[in-house]
Design goal:
Distance between the termini: 44 Å
Strand order of the largest sheet: 1-3-2
Low-confidence stretches: none
Strand content: 5-15%
Helix content: 55-70%
Structural class: mainly alpha
Number of strands: 3
Mean pLDDT: 87
Order of helices and strands: HEHHHEEHHHHHH
Number of helices: 10
Shape: globular
């Protein structure tokens, strides 16, 4: 069961994930999120960005950290993440990675921000998800076999499709876990080192800054 969040849209998750790296104003948040293709990972309504940022601040997940003025542009409020915001980001990511709830793109959203958790914790969460998926697959297969004995195939195609999609997700998750366990996941050592030292490798930091507003 998904938790009820103080600010529940996935745009809030995306905002927390970028502001966790450094303070920025709302226009810059949008620029960075667009450059990273976050709207491909999760459903984002750009028109609600300022409302989401305001609500995150109202609930203590972000706070004002100053203001910024570029040339003749209006002054912009710069926000930074709070300790409560970091805790919310981590908890939300854990839920998205571990809980195979049937909601569109939730898992994709979790994968897009999972670098904020250490590889060992991600492995634990994905194993939990895989265990749940395997139970669901077994239950769906049993139900399909039962229904297929009583109904023409035409009337169980949606159940076949749902089972196939669940099996494919389980297979993909299992494959990712095998990479993490074998140490073959690309740049795993650097990911692990980041969570030990707090320092992002230079080239990864450059990619993380892609889309940042400089003028």
């Amino acid at each position: 069961m998904a938790k009820r969040r103080k600010v529940g849209s996935l745009l809030a998750l995306a905002v927390l994930s970028v502001v966790a790296q450094r303070p920025m104003h709302a226009y810059e948040m949008a620029s960075v999120l667009r450059a990273r293709g976050k709207d491909q990972d999760m459903a984002i309504k750009w028109g609600s960005l300022y409302t989401v940022v305001h609500n995150l601040a109202r609930h203590g997940l972000l706070r004002e950290a100053g203001s910024d003025r570029q040339g003749g542009r209006p002054e912009r409020t710069v926000y930074e993440i709070t300790a409560e915001g970091r805790a919310e980001l981590a908890d939300w990511t854990r839920e998205l990675l571990s809980d195979p709830e049937e909601a569109p793109r939730r898992f994709e959203a979790g994968l897009s921000v999972m670098g904020g958790l250490a590889p060992e914790e991600v492995t634990t969460l994905l194993r939990r998800r895989l265990d749940a998926l395997e139970r669901l697959v077994a239950a769906q297969r049993e139900a399909l076999e039962r229904d297929a004995g009583d109904l023409p195939r035409l009337f169980v195609l949606e159940s076949e499709y749902a089972l196939a999609m669940r099996e494919a997700e389980a297979a993909w998750t299992r494959s990712l876990l095998e990479e993490l366990a074998a140490g073959t996941f690309p740049r795993l050592a650097e990911w692990r080192a980041f969570h030990s030292s707090g320092h992002i490798p230079q080239d990864i930091a450059g990619l993380a800054e892609r889309g940042a507003v400089t003028d």
